[in-house]
């Protein structure tokens, strides 16, 4: 099943029928695209989205980065609360957001690794940058 993780319907359907599924995505705002496949993403080195920090952070920027990461966790759980309830009803067991996401077979990431911070990725993560690039007029 080829699905977008923003809507958990595809992941729920694939888990229900025990089918392998592939995520085709740009990225989660709350860094779940690295947390779900268990990629290392240390807060002291990898800046969070919308902090505008670089990978060379001062102590206070690292504290800010950690606080933003805590806020992101609460934000994502609230954003996906209805989808998690629905998935729990369909699958007839308690599931969390990470339970649904980390069972993906392949992650097709629509961004180029050259523009991201250097970090290790899992073997099932494939960068396919340049897909939505329009030619300048």
TrEMBL record:
<keyword id="KW-1133">Transmembrane helix</keyword>
<dbReference type="GO" id="GO:0016020">
    <property type="term" value="C:membrane"/>
</dbReference>
<keyword id="KW-0808">Transferase</keyword>
<keyword id="KW-0812">Transmembrane</keyword>
<dbReference type="GO" id="GO:0008194">
    <property type="term" value="F:UDP-glycosyltransferase activity"/>
</dbReference>
<dbReference type="InterPro" id="IPR002213">
    <property type="entry name" value="UDP_glucos_trans"/>
</dbReference>
<keyword id="KW-0328">Glycosyltransferase</keyword>
<dbReference type="InterPro" id="IPR050271">
    <property type="entry name" value="UDP-glycosyltransferase"/>
</dbReference>
<keyword id="KW-0472">Membrane</keyword>
<comment type="similarity">
    <text>Belongs to the UDP-glycosyltransferase family.</text>
</comment>
<protein>
    <submittedName>
        <fullName>UDP-glucuronosyltransferase 1-3</fullName>
    </submittedName>
</protein>
<dbReference type="Pfam" id="PF00201">
    <property type="entry name" value="UDPGT"/>
</dbReference>
């Amino acid at each position: 099943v080829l699905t977008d993780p923003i809507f958990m319907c595809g992941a729920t359907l694939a888990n229900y029928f025990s089918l392998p599924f592939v995520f085709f995505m740009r990225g989660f705002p709350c860094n779940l695209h690295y947390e779900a496949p268990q990629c290392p993403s240390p807060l002291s080195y990898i800046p969070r989205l919308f902090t505008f920090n670089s990978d060379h952070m001062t102590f206070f920027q690292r504290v800010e980065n950690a606080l933003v990461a805590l806020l992101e966790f609460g934000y994502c759980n609230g954003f996906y609360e209805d989808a998690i309830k629905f998935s729990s009803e369909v699958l007839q067991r308690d599931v969390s957001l990470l339970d649904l996401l980390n069972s993906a077979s392949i992650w097709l990431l629509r961004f180029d690794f050259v523009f991201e911070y250097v970090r290790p990725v899992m073997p099932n993560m494939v960068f396919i940058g340049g897909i939505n690039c329009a030619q300048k007029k």
